[in-house]
Design brief:
Length: 348
């Protein structure tokens, strides 16, 4: 095939993609609030959708190895570039309608490709929360009645859907959870678990099960955007917001986060305990919820800590566990023994 024929074939393929997006132009434009970009931008809106979606699809495919990538590919050969893309692709203002991406994915899918667009997307963002990406075969398909709006919406669904039914309570019935330090002093065991969602924190038989979480630069970006998305989406269950509020309760000081680091429940990456503590304390700032989705968990933890033995244990550890307090106890004991001995000698 001549070079001119190849050029004509490429042009025909591109025209087919543009026409496919143009057929859903109005639906795609309706995904953006406050503007009718299809009317305002005309054909330029369709071109933007095609360019952005094709870039994202090619990125996901190269990441998973569905298509070949060059050794000097600037996106994958420079770690900072990939981090910038992680950051930009999860910003709420940068979302591309899923309808457009799915349409172009179906148009560009090769016979050799085996993974769905959902799997490609989730595997690309898998390292946002953990060092250990999931097995593609274990990623369950979403229920048929759920419509994905965009990438950020899919990431939220991947966290929320694996959860068991969470009971919620109004704010008037909610009591904040004790800190990690307080829980440990009260005898609560902290257990690292690997469930399908980082949101799945549970209290069972005296143990607080906390899913592992990788704390890095992009962790704040993804959680803040998930929180902002829940605040802006009508009739959206604020589970990510409640998760942030729960972590704010559990992590009050650098000692709390250090306990989680030592038990390898949370993995730190380029963040000090002080920075990580500040991150969790500010995560739920300026947010409002009507229901708390971890109310039963918080109540169970508070009931445990308010029992007589955990209270005594916590008081003892808080008051006497420090080195200077131990020395003071020994000194007081010696003085008491000497006092009794002296009194006994005098009486004798």
């Amino acid at each position: 095939m001549s070079e001119e024929a190849k050029q004509i074939e490429r042009l025909n393929i591109l025209t087919d993609w543009v026409n496919a997006v143009k057929s859903i132009e109005k639906k795609a434009s309706a995904c953006y609030a406050g503007h009718d970009f299809a009317a305002e931008l005309g054909d330029e809106f369709v071109k933007i959708m095609v360019r952005d979606s094709c870039f994202i699809l090619e990125l996901f495919r190269k990441h998973l190895g569905e298509v070949n990538r060059k050794a000097d590919d600037p996106i994958f050969s420079m770690s900072c570039t990939l981090q910038f893309l992680y950051h930009d692709l999860i910003l709420m203002e940068n979302q591309v309608p899923w309808l457009v991406q799915k349409t172009l994915f179906d148009k560009t899918k090769l016979p050799s490709e085996t993974e769905s667009l959902i799997v490609l997307t989730l595997l690309f963002f898998a390292s946002m929360f953990t060092f250990y990406p999931p097995d593609p075969e274990k990623i369950e398909p979403l229920p048929a009645q759920i419509t994905i709006k965009h990438i950020l919406d899919l990431l939220r669904l991947s966290l929320v859907l694996p959860l068991e039914e969470i009971k919620y309570a109004n704010l008037s019935w909610w009591q904040p959870a004790p800190s990690i330090t307080r829980l440990q002093q009260a005898g609560v065991k902290l257990v690292k678990v690997t469930p399908d969602s980082i949101l799945d924190i549970k209290y069972k038989g005296g143990s607080l099960e906390i899913p592992s979480l990788l704390i890095q630069e992009t962790t704040e970006t993804i959680l803040r955007n998930l929180i902002a998305y829940e605040q802006c989406l009508p009739d959206c269950q604020p589970i990510c917001i409640c998760y942030a509020k729960l972590l704010d309760n559990l992590i009050e000081s650098a000692n709390d986060i250090n306990i989680l680091f030592k038990k390898q429940i949370y993995d730190k990456y380029l963040l000090s305990p002080e920075d990580a503590t500040a991150f969790f304390s500010k995560l739920s700032n300026d947010t409002f919820v009507k229901q708390i989705y971890y109310s039963e968990l918080c109540n169970d933890l508070n009931r445990h800590c308010n029992r007589w033995w955990p209270r005594i244990r916590a008081y003892y550890l808080e008051t006497f566990a420090k080195p200077w307090a131990v020395v003071a106890q020994i000194y007081a004991g010696i003085m008491l023994i000497l006092t009794f001995w002296q009194t006994y000698i005098k009486k004798g």
